[in-house]
Write a structure and sequence with these properties.
homodimer, 367 residues, alpha/beta, Aspartate Aminotransferase, domain 2, Aspartate Aminotransferase, domain 1, 2 domains, seven-stranded mixed β-sheet, three-stranded antiparallel β-sheet, 33% helix, globular, pyridoxine biosynthesis (chains A, B)
């Protein structure tokens, strides 16, 4: 047995459920009696075929993904997808973007290489990002190939708690940092993508869920390995997939299915617990004189909670005390400053309670 | 202690040194007392920064990589590089390719999306691939941006045991399946790349070693995440790198440095052992009436040894008996048929001896 592990608030790569790490360690030299580590298996052998098939089946079950959507296991993360999405879906024509934070800002910038980009809405003001412009006022071109949103901004802490109305234009969403933290109505999106390294598994795996009728229109210079139609036709085996990362993601999906909270099961339990965690933390921040969060209440992320100490001179003491208390990686992103607590699925309620206790204790000592 | 593990002859993903797997399992929940798994670390934190820096330093030491070469940790494998290389190095102009097997064939095919491709030589005949055309007879365009070779063909078992003369044209090599199996004169190449999943680590990591003066000429539609200049300027952190795969690769590099064989150390020891392993296996095949290998003697791969049973009706019995003897994944690639023994760095001499014993025993029973 290891001693109590510290709580890891990293924005990603991020905490993995301890049970998953224990299982991975136990199976490292011999997966299910086959005499090989998962890392050592041919991706085309029966063992790995069963691993990836189970992972896809579990993902489909948890998110209730309709049959007419392909599930792709890719590489490069959301930053690569910033190019891969327009390479596959823009047809070199018009694509509209909503900017609600640093990530959607990067997405629209990269897309300009491939198509005619229009900003349907932008939430940037002199405080940075922290709100979502009124959906009804978005300027959406009816002939756009898609409308792109980032439904949870990891850096800025802005989360969509509604499915945007895209007025019939196919809706594409970067869900990197909240996919599998809550239920999603997949059928309302044309394409959902995300890097795995928040709620799903290790860095190096990207999930893409895309409606099959949109495939087959990649631009001529799209690399074959990133052509959704090619990847789908080859069941994510056109190039060698990141096998070990897929295995860990599969263990995480199984872990999600086992979760229970407040009478709920699986993803519903995970979502309810995430809501409870977020309430606990935001309530503590709102009640404080020492800390502040600049986010509008209707778009506060359940996953990434940026906050500031009003007296920035206390930042170093805050972080040092946190680490000594077993609360790791709380420093905010350099573009926003201050602090950020990422409280993904693998963060237990007890971890958020420990953070709240520390916040209150620190305020008593320095407030 | 685990019992004796079977010998894994997979072409890749492939065997990882047992010591590495044991260390990875032991460190899974807590890397060096930091309280986190390597999977859970921010890629920008001090712990992972030290891991990637050490991996790069060890790679530079083992391959004696000159300072004017960048080392890039990328994603997508060699198949993605088939596009990424011309996107970065062709300038949309001329690029020459030598085809000596299935992989270089794929490379030249993909490159046609991006530039004017010319086949400098092709080794395909009615037997498939199994030789390297005389270097002096290659048709190399003097104004080609680069000449591309695959220095070890994983499927066909054709390995370059010399550095090709490219007549002043920058030489680009896919070394996926023999990088780190032997010394390389890096300075004679403009760019070397390879997927990690043969001799280096898990699938999902691609190594690129590229001369810095060639960077900065990516085509306009090159995704930023795959622009060598962008990746280099960001020390492989433009997008989140595959952190756990890099960690495992780092452990493998340390393992290579610890190797001793025949009075030699490190990569020289690994290379000498690989030569001894290859001799042992080819000598057994050459001495047999039951098995045959169709490869020219001067280009027989030390890493991937395709061979055939002259009586293909025995294939199933051969593979079943091998598995029962603890010799896994010997089935040949579907495009070549027969058998293939991949004997990468992590395959001990004892594993090859066990295979030879089985070959001889099987021949006695069925010859």
């Amino acid at each position: 047995m290891v001693k109590q592990r510290p709580y890891n608030f990293s924005a990603g790569p991020a905490a993995i459920p301890e049970e998953v790490l224990e299982q991975a360690a136990a199976e490292m030299l011999d997966w299910h009696g086959c005499g090989m580590s998962v890392m050592e298996m041919s991706h085309r052998g029966p063992q790995f075929e069963s691993i990836i098939a189970q992972a896809e089946a579990d993902l489909r079950e948890l998110l209730q993904i309709p049959e007419d959507y392909a599930v792709l296991f890719m590489q490069g993360g959301a930053i690569a997808e910033n190019a891969i999405v327009p390479l596959n879906l823009s047809r070199g024509a018009k694509a509209d973007y909503v900017v609600t934070g640093s990530w959607s800002q990067k997405s629209q910038q990269e897309a300009r290489k491939y198509c005619d980009v229009h900003l349907s809405a932008s939430a940037h003001d002199d405080q940075g990002y922290g709100s979502i412009p009124d959906n009804a006022a978005w300027s959406i071109r009816p002939d756009a190939q898609y409308l792109h949103v980032c439904t949870n901004e990891t850096i800025d802490g802005v989360e969509f708690h509604f499915v945007p109305d895209s007025r019939g234009v196919p809706l594409v969403a970067d869900m990197s940092s909240h996919l599998l933290s809550r239920a999603v109505e997949v059928s309302r999106y044309a394409c959902i993508y995300g890097g795995a390294q928040k709620n799903i598994g290790p860095a190096g795996l990207t999930l893409v869920i895309v409606r099959r009728d949109l495939l087959g229109h990649a631009l001529p210079h799209c690399p074959s390995a990133f052509d959704y139609a090619v990847v789908a036709a080859n069941h994510s085996m056109f190039n060698t997939p990141p096998t070990y990362a897929i295995y860990i993601a599969g263990l995480v999906l199984q872990w999600i299915k086992r979760q229970r909270f407040d009478g709920l099961e699986g993803l519903a339990a995970v979502e309810a617990r995430n809501i409870a965690k977020a309430h606990l933390l935001y309530d503590a921040l709102d009640a404080s004189q020492l800390y502040e969060t600049r986010l509008a209440r209707d778009c506060r992320s359940r996953m990434n909670v940026p906050f500031h100490l009003r007296d920035t001179a206390l930042n170093t003491a805050f972080l040092q005390g946190a680490e000594a208390a077993g609360l790791l990686q709380l420093k905010g992103h350099k573009s926003v400053g201050g602090m950020r607590a990422s409280i993904y699925n693998a963060m237990p309620l007890e971890g958020v309670q420990a953070l709240v206790n520390y916040l209150q204790d620190f305020e008593k000592r320095h407030g």
